[in-house]
Specification:
With 190 residues, the protein is of the alpha+beta class. It is built from 3 helices and 8 strands. The longest helix is centred in the last third of the chain and has 19 residues. The relative contact order is 0.24.
Length: 190
């Protein structure tokens, strides 16, 4: 299977600005989390780009005599489902930075993709299409910026940012990254 990746649109300085932007959670810039390392310009330097594995599936849909297909993606680290519209943006190759191995295999991800699409279709009004077959499978890596900071005292924590859209990511992705780091450390020690 060929290696594909979703290119980054957010660079390190933009990611640092997004992590440090004034908002209600940090009292509009008055109370910011202390970064582990700080750059000479004052922005946090404890930012790392990692690549998380994911699968994209093109599923065939049938509604009466109408045949169509749609792309969906499943995150291979925690099983998150989403409709996928970026297949044409994927680039061929393997990222140079650290990329983590998938936790969920392709068969498990396909099952999650079908379940997620079924839930999505059932929530819509009108006639429901039938999910017929998987037409194509693409494994790819997606960019994620990780910001390390001191939360209280000497305890380290991390925040996660999507490297393509620039939106902050939730607790499931944070937990998946922490679990992947722990697994890599266990493999390194044994």
């Amino acid at each position: 299977m060929r290696s594909l990746y979703l290119p980054t649109r957010i660079d390190a300085t933009e990611a640092a600005r997004i992590f440090w932007r004034p908002r209600f959670g940090n009292l509009y810039g008055l109370w910011r989390a202390r970064p582990v390392k700080r750059a000479p310009d004052g922005l946090p330097a404890s930012i790392e780009l990692i690549w998380m594995p994911a699968y994209a599936f093109r599923l065939a849909l049938v509604k009466g005599q109408i045949h169509s297909n749609t792309w969906v993606s499943v995150d291979a680290s925690f099983g998150g489902f989403a409709l996928f519209e970026r297949v044409s943006v994927l680039k061929e190759g393997l990222p140079q930075e650290d990329h983590l191995p998938p936790v969920i295999d392709q068969a498990g991800a396909e099952k999650l993709a079908r379940q997620g699409l079924l839930r999505y279709v059932l929530r819509r009004r009108g006639a429901k299409p039938f999910i017929e077959a998987t037409e194509e499978v693409v494994a790819f890596y997606t960019p994620v910026w990780v910001y390390y900071y001191f939360s209280t005292g000497k305890k380290m924590d991390l925040k996660v940012l999507d490297g393509y859209t620039g939106s902050t990511m939730g607790g499931q992705m944070r937990a998946a990254i922490v679990n992947a780091f722990i697994q890599k450390q266990k493999e390194r020690n044994s």
